[in-house]
């Protein structure tokens, strides 16, 4: 996998958040784990509030899964996971949704296809990043799901973009 290097402005997202071991219920990439449950809750809230939120969405086809690594994540096996969508304006937001602002930065963007997503983190963090001239600028990672290119975890045509903040 070879990344594309891009610069991105500050991202304003609304969505749902989870803190803990996201693989407590089910291991790996599975809709039954806490991340899968978080996506389900987010989708339900977006559907319920669709008319109210529609005018604020930047691109309703694009969804974000943000993994934020607190300093103790490796020792305690706990992470913040935020799933959401980008908004331009926050005049009106349902109480059940949270607002997350990601800083302006450069990203190394890795596009995975089919089952490549399963080994993306190993390739990125154990191979590419140590061999590159970059360091992580922030301790988070974004997975971007565009409904025009993502058709489900088991679909070999599905693409997921991994955004790694770099400096």
Question: Which features characterize this protein?
Answer:
single chain, 167 residues, alpha+beta, Multidrug-efflux Transporter 1 Regulator Bmrr, Chain A, 8-stranded antiparallel β-sheet, 8 strands, 21% helix
Write the layout of secondary structure elements.
Layout: E1 4-8, E2 11-20, H1 34-48, H2 50-53, E3 62-68, H3 73-76, E4 79-86, E5 98-102, E6 105-113, H4 120-131, E7 140-146, E8 159-166
Write out the strand line-up for the largest beta sheet, numbering strands in chain order: 1-6-8-7-3-4-2-5
Number of E strands: 8
Number of helical elements: 4
Tally of separate domains: 1
CATH homologous superfamily grouping: Regulatory factor, effector binding domain
Q: What is the molecular shape? A: globular
What is the CA-CA span between the terminal residues?
Answer: 19 Å
Strand composition percent: 35-45%
Series of secondary-structure elements, N-terminal to C-terminal:
EEHHEHEEEHEE
For the CA atoms, what is the radius of gyration?
16 Å
Structural class: alpha+beta
CATH class: Alpha Beta
Helicity, as a percent range: 10-25%
Q: In CATH terms, what is the fold-level topology?
A: Multidrug-efflux Transporter 1 Regulator Bmrr, Chain A
Largest sheet: 8 strands, antiparallel
The name of the CATH architecture is Alpha-Beta Barrel
Low-confidence stretches: none
Mean pLDDT: 91
């Amino acid at each position: 996998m070879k990344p594309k290097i891009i610069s991105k402005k500050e991202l304003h997202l609304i969505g749902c958040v989870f803190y803990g071991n996201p693989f407590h219920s089910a291991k790996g990439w599975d809709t039954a784990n806490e991340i899968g449950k978080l996506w389900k809750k987010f989708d339900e809230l977006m559907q319920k509030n669709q008319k109210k939120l529609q005018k604020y969405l930047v691109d309703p086809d694009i969804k974000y899964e943000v993994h934020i690594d607190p300093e103790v994540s490796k020792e305690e096996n706990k992470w913040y996971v935020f799933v959401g969508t980008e908004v331009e304006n926050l005049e009106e937001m349902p109480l059940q949704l949270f607002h997350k602002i990601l800083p302006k930065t450069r990203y190394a963007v890795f596009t995975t296809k089919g089952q490549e997503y399963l080994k993306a983190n190993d390739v990125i963090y154990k191979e590419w990043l140590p061999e590159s001239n970059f360091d992580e600028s922030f301790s988070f990672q974004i997975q971007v799901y565009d409904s025009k290119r993502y058709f489900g975890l088991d679909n070999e045509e599905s693409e997921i973009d991994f955004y790694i903040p770099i400096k």
